[in-house]
Amino acid sequence: MSKRLFKLFFTVPQSHLEVCKQAVFSAGAGSYADGKYSEVCFETTGTGQFVPSAGAEPAVGDVGEVVKVVETKVEVLCVGKEVVTAAVEKLKRAHPYEEVAYEVYAIEDA
Q1: pLDDT value of position 2
Q2: What is the phi-psi region of residue 78: left when phi exceeds 0, alpha when psi lies from -120 to 50, beta otherwise?
Q3: What is the pLDDT of residues 29-85, one digit of tens each?
Q4: Rounded to whole angstroms, what are the CA distances from 63 to 56, 68, 69, 102?
Q5: Among 17, 68, 77, 81, which residue carries the largest CB count within 10 Å?
Q6: What's 29's DSSP letter?
Q7: What is the DSSP string of 36-104?
Q8: Listing from the earlier edge strand, what are the strands of the sheet with 5-13?
Q9: By C-alpha distance, which of 14, 39, 40 is closest to 96?
Q10: Which helix (H) or strand (E) holds 109?
Q11: Residue 36 CB contacts under 8 Å (≥ 6 apart), including other chains
């Protein structure tokens, strides 16, 4: 039986792009085809926006003010539930933000 496939998406300020990618890669994300390919991902650059509210401890910007940051969205394949779980845990430790923006989707094989 083959392992389930997942797609992990996350956004990260460019200052922490490489450290966050290496964190998820170290968990096995971005490796597939029986190890024939590794550290595979897709990146797009854009502008993230948020307003930190009272009680927040933002890594960038000030509470109550609109913050815009040039960020990179990374998409990476994860083979197996254990890989995506470990990748998210490592991403959260490596990422500079108090709340990490990420999404995980199960991929259905057609």
Answers
A1: 77
A2: beta
A3: 999 878 899 999 999 999 999 999 999 888 888 999 999 999 999 999 999 999 999
A4: 7, 13, 15, 22
A5: 77
A6: T
A7: TB-S--EEEEEEEEE-PPTT---SSS-TTS-EEEEEEEEEEEEESHHHHHHHHHHHHHH--SSS--EEE
A8: 42-50, 67-79, 5-13, 102-107
A9: 14
A10: none
A11: none
Q: Which residues pair with 107 in a beta bridge?
A: 5
Residue with tokens 């948020």: 50
Amino acid letter, residue 17:
L
Amino acid identity for residue 53 in this structure: S
Separation CA 53–CA 78 (nearest Å) = 33
User: At 106, which amino acid appears?
Assistant: A
